[in-house]
Amino acid sequence: MTDINIAIIPGDGIGVEVTAAAWEVSLAAAATCNIGLSATTFPWSCDHYLKTGAMMPANGIETLRSYDAILLGAIGWPAKVSDDVSLHELLLRIRKEFDLYANVRPHKLLPGVTGPLRAENIDILCIRENTEGEYSGAGGRVHRATANEVAIETAVFTRQGVERILRYGFEMARKRRKQLASVTKSNAQRHSMVFWDDVTRQMSVEYPDVEVRSYHVDALAARMVMFPETLDVIVASNLFGDILSDIGAAIQGGLGFAASANIDPTGRSPSMFEPVHGSAPDIAGKDAANPIAAIWSAAMMFEHLGQPELAARIMATVERVCARGIGVGSAGSSQGTHYITNEILLEIAR
Length: 350
Ligand code: NAI
Ligand code: MG
Known about the structure:
The protein has about 350 residues and is α/β, with parallel strands linked by helices. The protein has 2 domains: about 1-100 and about 265-350, Isopropylmalate Dehydrogenase, CATH 3.40.718; about 115-250, Isopropylmalate Dehydrogenase (3-Layer(aba) Sandwich), CATH 3.40.718.10. The protein has helices at about 15-30, 45-50, 60-65, 85-95, 160-175, 190-205, 215-225, 240-250, 290-305, 310-325, 335-350; strands at about 1-10, 35-40, 70-75, 100-110, 125-130, 135-140, 150-155, 180-185, 210-215, 235, 260-265, 270-275. It has a 10-stranded mixed β-sheet with strand order 2-1-3-12-11-4-5-10-8-9, sandwiched between helices. It has a two-stranded antiparallel ribbon with strand order 6-7. Bound molecules: 1,4-dihydronicotinamide adenine dinucleotide and magnesium ion. 1,4-dihydronicotinamide adenine dinucleotide (NAI) binds near residues 75, 278, 279, 283 and 289.
């Protein structure tokens, strides 16, 4: 019997509803695989901020460090706490302090789900660099509110940062269909992006079994819409990956299906798994959120923790349920969080 210990941070709004669903499904599936799961739920959220003055306690990061992984719902409730505070003090702090440098999003069209495209075989893994690049935070603003005002935002690309994300991309491609699309804009950005292309070429020697192609980001964005079935693994910088993975979420049927992982591939820190969507204040408390993105994120967590059988069990169940038309529909579903979750639980028991 394997024992896995998870830190759950439900967060705000529908984050609470979908993590409850994801954990219930995880427990049921784990029982069929003889895996013992335990979890501690941390109430860190905007309500916690209003009560205590902080999104998480001072020792929050140290507390999380002792868990195998983190399952997170969504953070943010703009009517109570400004988004830049809630996001920076919790979600971004965890990503940064644990150096979760690979942001991974599977864009797969599940059976029964009709995305906006005619393509039926979409199965893309988008890997976004999560710590530097265009979002390094380096820059400044001077001569404020004058005609001479200047704002500079500097993209930072280090050899360590570029090599480690490309290596992760090559490794993932090797486990899948062995095709890697490396994304830059090296015709226009002659320093950082040519460097990225150089590192891609250098590393490809170590992966002769992986077919690697470099694309400009604009061309790849078009390819994701026109010929998504030709793409396997995509690896991109922070900004490019951010935008491309939103195209990915759209073509897989919307936010109700978009799962993600923030991974420390070295395994030194706990990795964090979360649906791509936010707290959805417009539908929170109405039992209207699609829990599939969160359930899929939990499956990614078990895969990362070396439990592929459990991950596959969860995803096979979700796919069978979706194929019956349950949980599908625009950006989620009107069938209800509980209804969809119960159908998945029944399918596991079958
Ligand atoms: P959102 O993702 O919460 O909602 C966008 C739209 O999609 C809404 O109409 C919502 O009802 C719908 N939607 C989202 N998830 C759904 C689901 N599972 N099932 C059915 N419909 C779903 O984005 P929004 O409204 O821009 O942000 C709300 C709050 O969430 C903000 O405070 C924002 O900062 C935060 N946020 C947090 C994220 C995170 O924790 N990683 C990511 C995105 C936003
Ligand atoms: Mg985004």
